Amino acid sequence: MSQAQPIFQKSIKLTTPLFCPKCSSKNVGKNGKNSSGSQSYICKQCKKIFTPVVKEEVERVVNPKLEYLKDIWDCRCLGIDGGVGKSSYKLNFTHLFQPWLRKTAKAYLKVCLSSITFASVQEKLYSLRRLSSFLTSDYPRIEPEDIDRKVITDFTIHLASLKLASSTRYKILSDTRLFFDAAYQNKWLNVSRYLVRPEDFPKQEKSVPRYIPEVVMQQLNEHLDDLALPIMRMVLVLQECGMRISELVNLSFDCLLQDKAGDWFLRYYQFKMKKEITIPISREVVRVIQEQQKYIRQYFTQEEFDYLFSANKGAATPNFVPSPSVMERRTLPRHLNRLAKRHNICDSPGNIWHFQTHQFRHTVGTRMINNGVPQHIVQKYLGHESPDMTSTYAHIHDQTMKEEVAKFHGKVVNISGQVVEEVCPEVEIQDLQWFKKTIQAQALPNGSCALPTISQGCPHANACLTCTHFRTTKEHIDKHKQQLEQTEQIIEKANANGWVRQVEMNEKVKTNLENIISALEGKVDGN
Predict the structure, then answer these.
(1) Using CA atoms, how far apart are residues 367 and 211, in angstroms rounded to an integer?
(2) Which residue of 70, 79, 105, 174 has the smallest Cβ count within 10 Å?
């Protein structure tokens, strides 16, 4: 079949906004024409002279009938949304080498486009390309009516020889089965029924979260200042909220909500689940988001751009010049992996860490489970549709993981040495309030305060070790022992000088420290 020629309505010129590429200032003016005759500009702030980048782009015409005749489909010409933050818009059938397979795949995927996302259709085409490659190699002259159980069995053996992950092999075989079933039912091909059977599928391994080890996270945070400010803010939001990259790049400018108590929540849309969710966030992340809001409004009005994060012109750091369009999904991991190479960010064995944005989501889920957050709360926080999705994080038995998050496993005790149990509300808004009052508790040098950060100041300033709201864990035991030794010295001196009030106050601190140390060392009954 001959390739139909594309139709273009017109050619348009796109020019980058007039921002200085060095300091991002909008205070620029004309500076005459350069040697090539192009208009140059000068930044009145840093005096840099530059010429805006001009590129040619074509305006695509939506013409599905014409597009379906081609061997490469562009979803934008089909009038189909390619997906949020995506950079790939094509379905390339040229790698289906058998004419009958290419023709039938087009008919099949055309139907699929009416019911599933463009990204899912791309995955199906990838699976059919695997099938075509196998047939070309092992059955170069095969026709559809010749495909039998032996061919399918050989295909499963071929996939196993490629040492693909069992989940990948499962997906390829599942797509192949659906393709042949549709071809049989619609009489597109003369094939047998039930070519691919349940026994052909590999046993699926239990999914293990792809979390970021704590040692890697620490190195990342040490070098965040070497990222462009908008990129750094994206990383900070991901670390706390565990969003998908599609949700992050499409985060609305007005994503912050505040309740009557003055606490903050983040509202965003989950494209995968097709629903809007709201989660509590810390004041630190609120400030990060507010800084980004201020940054965006420096360059764009609400009519021009109404998202929190934007694309940029030029990937060099720190010359990050915003562009009024949504950032592509691949941009953030590119910045992170460049940072990893620049600063040698490695895992424990010494390998440069390869960042993927979904790792942050798995890290948040893993940390919460290991921090004792109830599974139904994690499910609500991450926006999972079913408990099965959340249970992935609840089945972590790897010893390395246990060591890395050991600080989350320690007992939490109060000033009397009693183990403190968390009381969790059941559902809905109470879940959000539970997060607010426990996850966002105030951190102290030797423990934490159970009062939420929104409290109107602490009524017991400098008296944590005599306060019922004080909480601590084993990681602070050395500080407690050091403080006990200092307290005993104070008591000894106070007794020698007859300072009765000082003796009375510090005796109480001493008793509480002894109770805390005993409980953390397991010398008293407790959980």
Answers:
(1) 9
(2) 79
Contact present, 347 and 215 (Cβ < 8 Å):
yes
If we measure between CA atoms, which residue out of 30, 105, 43 comes closest to residue 73? 105
- Calpha distance 97→128 (Å, rounded): 10
What confidence tens digit (pLDDT) does each residue in 211-262 have? 888 899 999 999 999 998 999 999 999 998 888 888 898 899 999 998 877 8
SS (H, E, C) 61-78: CCCHHHHCCCCEEECCCC
Give CA–CA dist 109/90, Å, rounded: 13
Q: Which two tokens stand for residue 488?
A: 């005993």
Of the CA atoms within 13 Å of residue 143, those in its CB half-sphere come to 2
- The strand pairing partners of 323, in sequence order, are 311
Which of 367, 419, 389 has its CA nearest to residue 525?
419
Residues with a known catalytic role: 244, 272, 358, 361, 384, 393
The pTM is what? 0.52
Which sequence spans correspond to the domains of the chain?
A: 62-200, 214-354, 415-438+460-520
Cα-based torsion angle of the residue sequence 479, 481, 482, 487 in order, rounded to the nearest 10 degrees: 120
**Other beta carbons less than 10 A from residue 31's beta carbon:** 14
Is the Cα dihedral 361, 363, 364, 368 positive or negative? positive
- Angstrom distance (rounded) from CA 5 to CA 63: 12
3-state secondary structure 242-273: CCCHHHHHCCECCCEEECCCCCEEEEEEECCC
Looking at residue 8, its pLDDT comes to 42
Q: For the chain, how many residues are written?
A: 527
Distance of alpha carbon 395 from alpha carbon 270, whole angstroms:
25
Query: Residue 311 — φ and ψ, nearest 5°?
Result: -75, 180
- At 255-289, the pLDDT tens digits run 999 887 788 899 988 877 777 888 888 889 999 99
Task: State pLDDT tens for residues 113-167.
Answer: 998 888 899 999 999 999 999 999 999 999 999 999 999 999 999 999 998 888 8
Alpha helix stretches (DSSP H) within 224-370: 229-241, 245-249, 283-299, 331-343, 358-370
Q: Name 266's bridge partners.
A: 256, 279
Alpha carbons 312 and 333: distance in angstroms, whole number: 15
Structure-token pair, residue 221 = 């945070």
Express each pLDDT in 425-466 by its tens digit.
333 455 555 555 444 444 455 555 544 443 444 544 445 666
Q: Is the pLDDT of residue 386 over 50?
A: yes
Contact 101, 146 (CB under 8 A): no
CATH 1.10.443.10, domain 214-354, yes or no: yes
Q: What is the pLDDT of residue 464?
A: 66
Query: What's the CA gap between 113 and 80, in Å, rounded?
Result: 8
Q: What is the mean pLDDT of the chain?
A: 78
Specify the residue for token string 């079933």: 181
